[in-house]
Design brief:
single chain; 300 residues; alpha/beta; Rossmann fold; eight-stranded mixed sheet; 8 strands; 43% helix; binds 1,4-dihydronicotinamide adenine dinucleotide
């Protein structure tokens, strides 16, 4: 343990979106404490995305500076490309470059699918999925030119596994996984690594739905250590998803079973006859990319 090199971000510039509170604040503090110059972005609105306020981002910038770190505030929304471009411009204007992007900003509009309006759907998709894409896109060219980049995106168990009342949020969060896996592949030759976290933590988003005793074990700092490693130079992995909360950290994977190969004319009855084997995951495995997955159908 003692020989593990320190994870440091000296001379690195990081953007953390939604960093005015909760997980984002904690990620920003960790990156700054370890030498990164940080853009603390936050629109400063309510959990449902309404309103805006500059105080949230300002407060975290003050905290970072008080601890001897370097940071600048950004109040632009991630939910438009124009906003995302301004966030990236803030990094370039203040610190001259951009190396790390932590896409963390988020809102909730929880409601059963029956009652969900188009507006509930659009707003959640705009902040989470489009926001992640807009900020990554605005920073992409600079990361390519660096020949170095670390992008950490934020999914949720609700996206990976589904959750009652969160059709909009689940769709957005699983969309982020697909986006991240493709960015990992396209960024590979420029040393742009893109990974995803599925956190569980105490924040204003969870404090009304989890008991206080549970929340005290789920401090955001218990997630930020993983984010720190995923932003580091020593990181090798890309295109991966990690669940994290309360000190628990585990890789999550989309896997495919060994399946079945049925020759000749394939009928629905033959599918029924093979149903057990089709559903068997005892030899399940992940694939590196879509081509490899498609190859499974051509084998044999
Ligand atoms: P939070 O509400 O404290 O943090 C989200 C931040 O994003 C807020 O400060 C908010 O002002 C900001 N934000 C919202 N819309 C924005 C926009 N358009 N542009 C810029 N900033 C904006 O909640 P928390 O829990 O810290 O959430 C952080 C991320 O983690 C979110 O993406 C959330 O979906 C995700 N997450 C959190 C979990 C948890 O257990 N706390 C569980 C699974 C995922």
């Amino acid at each position: 343990m003692a020989d593990t090199p320190k994870v440091r971000f000296d001379n690195r510039v990081a953007i953390v979106t939604g960093a005015g509170g909760g997980l984002g604040r904690s990620h920003a503090l960790l990156l700054a404490e370890r030498g990164a110059k940080v853009v603390v972005n936050d629109l400063g609105g309510a959990v449902d995305g309404s309103g805006s306020d500059t105080k949230a981002a300002d407060k975290v910038v003050e905290e970072i500076k008080a601890a001897g770190g370097e940071a600048v505030a950004s109040y632009d929304g991630v939910d438009t490309f124009e906003g995302a471009q301004k966030i990236v411009a803030t990094a370039k204007d203040a610190f001259g470059r951009i190396d790390i992007v932590v896409n963390n900003a988020g809102i909730l509009r929880d409601v059963s699918f029956k009652k969900m309006t188009e507006d509930d759907w659009n707003r959640v998709l705009k902040v989470h999925l489009y926001g992640t894409m807009f900020v990554s896109k605005a920073a992409w060219e600079a990361l390519r030119e660096n020949g170095f980049g670390r992008i950490v995106n934020t999914t949720s168990a609700a996206g990976l596994y589904g959750n009652f009342g969160q059709a909009n949020y689940s769709a957005a969060k699983m969309g982020i996984v697909g986006l991240s896996k493709t960015l990992a592949q396209e960024g590979g030759k420029y040393d742009i690594k893109c990974n995803v976290i599925a956190p569980v933590a105490k924040s204003r988003m969870t404090e009304t739905i989890m008991p206080p005793e549970a929340l005290e074990k789920l401090l955001p700092e218990r997630v930020s250590a993983l984010v720190g490693y995923l932003c580091s130079e020593q990181l090798q992995e890309t295109g991966q998803v990690y669940a994290a909360g309360g000190g628990y950290i585990a890789r999550v994977a989309v896997v495919e079973g060994a399946g079945v190969r049925i020759g000749g004319d394939l009928t629905p009855e033959q599918v029924v006859e093979s149903w057990e084997q089709i559903n068997d995951h005892s030899k399940a495995q992940p694939f590196q990319n879509a081509m490899e997955a498609a190859g499974a159908a051509l084998k044999g």
